[in-house]
Amino acid sequence: xxxxxxSVHDYIRLDPxxxxxxxxxTFQRLRHIKQLSTVRLVYPxxxxxxxxxxxxxxxxxxxxxxxxxxxxDTARHTRAxxxxxxxxxxxxxxxxxxxxxxxxxxxxxxxxWLLTDSDRAVCQVLESHxxxxxxxxxxIAGEGRLGPLVAGELxxxxxxxxxxxxHHTGVPYGTVDHGRLVRELRLEGxxxxxxxxxxxxxxxxxxxxxxxxxxVYRHHVSRIAGAMLDRACEQYLDxxxxxxxxxxxxxxxxxxxxxxxxxxxxRIESRDLYKRAIWAGLDRVPSEILDVTYGDARDxxxxxxxxxxVDPAAVIVDVPSRPGLKELGTNVVVDxxxxxxxxxxxxxxxxxxxxxxxxxxxxxxxxxxxEQVSDAAREVLxxxxxx
Length: 387
Known about the structure:
Elements lengths: L1 E5 L3 E5 L1 H7 L2 H4 L21 H16 L6 H13 L12 H8 L7 H7 L1 H9 L4 H8 L6 H4 L5 H14 L8 H6 L1 E4 L2 E4 L4 H19 L2 H20 L4 H4 L4 H7 L4 H7 L5 E6 L13 H15 L7 E3 L12 E4 L2 E4 H4 L1 H13 L2 E5 L4 H12 L6
Antiparallel strand pairs: 1-2, 3-4, 5-9, 6-9, 7-8
Helix pairs in contact: 1-4, 3-4, 3-10, 4-8, 10-12, 12-19, 13-16, 17-20
């Protein structure tokens, strides 16, 4: 076992498979993908990477497997999947995920193309230890009995990133008792479940996620920068011969340099960001707006720009997904019965309501244009007046 010193978990011990996987170029690339992408424009110390996060996820998965009744072969495949779960991320992580999905139809956790075709180094390590790359791929996608441990409502991914992100941003809201969480996991009827007496444990994870959403993950500055990044990447791919396959293998710094060919890229690099012309809650937004497509949002941008008399590139419409928390579906044992957390916790209902209250539609533009863009956007989007 090779120990690695970690800022969150102290020492992480790698088994021989993990040690070899960490040395592959595919895993080393994660040193150059920041965990919090544009959030670091808000919290300057949030410069940790998906490399160290992946080591943390491996560590927590290993601890959980020590308490789950699974055979050694299943445990070995699951540990490998936990370590490799983020290798499919493009530059800037989740901030480019929508663009990659639009152009390829795949998400970052659909890594079959990477494990079985493009990177023989990863496959060779797995196969040399009698591990099946396709089985590892399925676990990364959350499939099978133990897939939810890697990617599910109660996965070790969020247990690590909540604590790690809170640590590096300096906020006190991501506190999670991951030690208890991994010890109390059980397989009940083939479902990953928290043992009896752990409703408060599950609620703490839910609360931490909700607070981190409000203060860190959905901070308006990060959302503005993320929306600008999306549009800059679209412009870059449309204007160059770079393929989406090449794009998704870039590191953060590669992309930032490439985007200097675009005005939005230059603005992101110098943190000269657009401002909020509209920041509207659910009570002001017509229901049909909530499910608009990317194309619909771009059409709205052009319509707003035309009504405001500004360049279409100066307007960005940002419609986030409907409010919700995956953690609400966590399985917990209550009175001997496996139940969903949202069906047994009064706190869960309050947190769901808070998520709805915090939801915001954004329209962004250069600061000097906010007044005219705001007037046009209210009319085009049919927004209700502020109460």
